[in-house]
Amino acid sequence: MDLTLAVCGVQEKNMSNNRSYCMRYFNGVRYCYQNGQLHRIGGPAVDCSSLGGGYGWYQNGRLHRVGGSAIENVYGRNEWWENGELIR
Q1: Tens digit of pLDDT for each residue in 42-68?
Q2: Rounded Cα–Cα distance for residues 54 and 44 (Å)
Q3: How far apart are CA 80 and CA 65, in angstroms?
Q4: Spatial distance between the Cα atoms of 37 and 60, rounded to a whole number of angstroms
Q5: Residue 32, beta-bridge partner list
Q6: Contact indicator for 28, 70 with CB cutoff of 8 Å
Q7: Residues contacting 25, CB < 8 A, separation 6+
Q8: Which of 69, 66, 67, 51 lies closest to 5, judged by CA?
Q9: Does this model's pTM top 0.85?
Q10: Which positions ≥6 away from 29 have C-beta within 8 Å?
Q11: In terms of DSSP bridges, do strands 81-82 and 78-79 run parallel, antiparallel, or are they unpaired?
């Protein structure tokens, strides 16, 4: 299962290059990348709140968040991940 699909209900496009940037699509969904991988420090790399969805915290293409859930959505599904491994 694609976890960005679980957070947003939409599929993200994998962009490969060597720079950091965020893309906001016409529907308001935002994806942040670094070196072609989902990545953001200090906030969610996937933001689907504009669709009534949730957030996904990624670092270096892996779900990762210390001190909170890496997947949050409006349906109460919260998952704790560190370095791409489900811990709770």
Answers
A1: 999 999 988 888 999 999 999 999 999
A2: 10
A3: 7
A4: 6
A5: 22
A6: no
A7: none
A8: 51
A9: no
A10: 8, 10, 46, 47, 48, 50, 51, 53
A11: unpaired
What is the chain's alpha carbon radius of gyration, rounded to the nearest angstrom?
A: 12
**Distances from the Cα of 54 to the Cαs of 8, 17, 43, 81, in angstroms?**
6, 26, 12, 15
Q: For the chain, what is the domain count?
A: 1
Phi, psi dihedral angles at 37 (to 5 degrees): -120, 150
Closest CA to 37 of 12, 73, 55: 12
Q: Which amino acid is it at 19?
A: R
**In the numeric block, which tokens belong to residue 19?**
């720079």
Structural domain that includes position 51? 3-86
- CA–chain centroid gap for 13, Å, is 12
**CA-based angle 3:79:9, to the nearest 5?**
35
